[in-house]
Structure formats: structure tokens, C-alpha cells
Amino acid sequence: MGSSLDPKRTVAELKELRALTSDENGAQRVAFTDAWLKARGWMRQKLVDLPLEIHQDAAGNTWFMLRGESEKALLIGGHMDSVPNGGWLDGCLNLLAGVEILRRINAQYHGKPPITVRLVDWADEEGARFGKSLFGSSACSGNLVMDEARGLVDKDGIKLPDALKNVGVDFERVKDSGVELKNAAAYLELHIEQGPVLLDLDLPLGAVLGTFGVERHAIDFHGQAAHSGSTPMNRRKDAFLAAAKMAPYLYQLANEHGGVCTVGSCSTKPGIVTSVVEECRITLDQRHLDKDKLERLYWDARDASEQFAEDANAEVHWERLLQIAPRPFNDELVALCDEAIRETCGKSHRLPSGPLHDATEMAAAGVPTVMMFVQSLHGISHNKIEDTKEEHLEMCVTAFDKLAEKTMAWIQSPPGQS
Ligand SMILES: [Zn+2]
Prior knowledge:
The protein is an alpha/beta fold. Helices cover 37% and strands 23% of the residues. Strands 3, 4, 5, 6, 7, 8, 13, 14 and 15 form a 9-stranded mixed sheet that branches. Strands 10-11-9-12 form a 4-stranded antiparallel sheet, covered by helices on one side. The chain binds zinc ion (ZN). The site of zinc ion (ZN) has 5 residues, from loops.
């Protein structure tokens, strides 16, 4: 027995991948490109010595299966694709840690673990080329909106279905990928945090509580254009005044209820220095892990907008741009993740994820899911300066491996006995 886990090897392989698929501007593994295929081929080579069954599913996701005594499967996921000029860790750290864990499990159980272990490389997590993230995992979960995806076009005018054909995927059948989840008993994903929370706490690792839900709206205030010199203050219908009062109130709501909110844009018409603003449009992005609190953020903002509009003699209309449900992860797996982290580096922290991940789709599909985050230096990602200390990278492989082992035991223990 004994563990053959070698986290230093993971760091060395990450560097090897970087040398293979990055240039002076960062990682260039955009999905469905030659560089992406090259990276995938490279990863496959890393696993040739293991007794794995490897196949590409109907959505272009690659699955590496170490068959166990039971068909029940532990899933570990990541994505080889990057944004253009991306970082060296986003997505592939998850996969290469998974590679190391497969090696350890294979060695420890002499090629036959008690349950099946499957590593999945999701296709086009980033959506960099077609503007639609989580492609492979949302096809697998069944959430991909086919009519929307069918019409997606890249900057060269190539349609998503045609790009998929190039890599052997039939667009109309991508949801057949769902069969892969038949025996899925748990899903684990390691990821760099991509934000500054763990950095500010000076902690290497954190257990992720889930991914934020999103309410995204355009708010249009409508007043009346009028001469800035001749119109007394009490006769104005000032759309900008209403919008301007809205902004600090929105941020106050996030302070009260938690979550985050952003007023990302503000435009005015006629937009000239001598006119009261007739139309003012702001965009609002609110995110929260708790469904009820997210609703509260939204409705409080809506109610207040009516009041601010009335105060400014203006009117207000809301237009929803996007709505995504919060996806809390599995409580018991979050606890196991916490435990694995504490055993590795003494202290853990639980935090929500602002960005969506493939894990969001697995949680949506009803697979018990958890993610582990490792600290990001500078709190920056999707940029060539994305980085994590090597000692933290090694630590995250160790902790993630412990989580995998604990989760295997969790899957085997019948309900009520754990
Ligand atoms: Zn990622």
C-alpha cells in the first residue's frame, strides 16, 4: 500500500504544459483549436501507463476511467481550455492534480479501487471563442439551451456546430453526454481562487460553499429633456438624478444582505451638457449564494427604483438580461473538504465562488459536488500574471487527494452510517 502521490510532479507537469502551449502573452489553449488538441494529446500521454478506459463523449468531453469494484463513480473534473492570453493554472491545475490522484489510487489499490474513479476534461469551459461558457458540462447536465447554442458564431464567422464537427462532435447529439452521469456519486473540482479572499486571509486553501446565483438587469429611467438654464429645479423630470440615487442604495443592499453588486455601465440621453437627462440606463449585476437573499437584493432594488423615480418625476423600467440560480454545494462534502484542508495545512476557510465553474453544472444535475480553492497571487486570473506559490500548489494536490480518498469512503458508506 502506501501513497505514491507526488505533488512536485504536478508542478513540473504544469510547467511542461506551459512550455508547450503558452507564448509570451500567456496560455493559448482556446477550445477546439489545434493548441487545445495538442494539450489534450499531451495529457493523454501522461496517462498511458495506467489501466484506464478513455473516450470522448457526445459533447467532446474526455473521460478517463479507472474501473473499480463498484460501478458507483467518483468524478474529478477540470478543463484543458484557456482564454486567449490566459494563465498557466486555470483549468489545467484541476486536471493535472486529478492525473496525480489517479496514479496514487491506481498504485494503492493495485488497479482496482473499491469504486470507479473518473477524471473528466470538460470541453470549452471558458467559452472564449463562442461567448458561451460551460459548454461541455452544460451539455452533460442537460442545461445547454440548444436553440441559443446552435446560432453561436466566432469572430471569423464560423458556427459552433461547424467547429464541433471539426473535432468529431455532432452538435445535435451533444446532450447524449448526459449518460456519463449515470453512476456519478460525487463530483470534485480543484481550482485557483481567481480572487483575493484567501490571499487577504493569508490562507493557502479554502472549501467552496457553492457558486453565486446572478440577477442581471438593465434599469431604464425616463424623464424629460429640458434646457439646463431655463428649467427651475422643481420642474425637472431628471432621469439621471433617479439613477444616481440608485447606485449607493444598491451597494448598501449588498452590505446589508451580503453578496456582491455592480453597476457596470451608465449611459444618458441626450447626453449633452445643456440638457436635463431624459433617458438614463444603468446595468446592474447582483450575485449571492443564497436564493432568498438574492431575491431580496433584487426586489428591494426594484422597489427602491420606483421611489427614486417618483422623487425625480421620472419613470422606471426593468429589463432582465440574465438570471442564474445559486448552486450551493453538498454540505457533507464541504465538511470533508474542510477536514482535508485542515489536515494538510492546519486552517481552512469556507467561501462562495463568484465565477461559475463546471462544478455548477454538476451540482445543477444533482450530483453531490464540492470544490476546493487554492490561493491566487495578486487575486488575478484570465491573465498571464495569474500565479500561485509553488508550495501552495503542492499543498493543494495533497489536500485534494485527501478529499478524494475521504469522498471514496463517503460514497461507500451507506446513508445513515456516516
Ligand atoms: Zn477555470
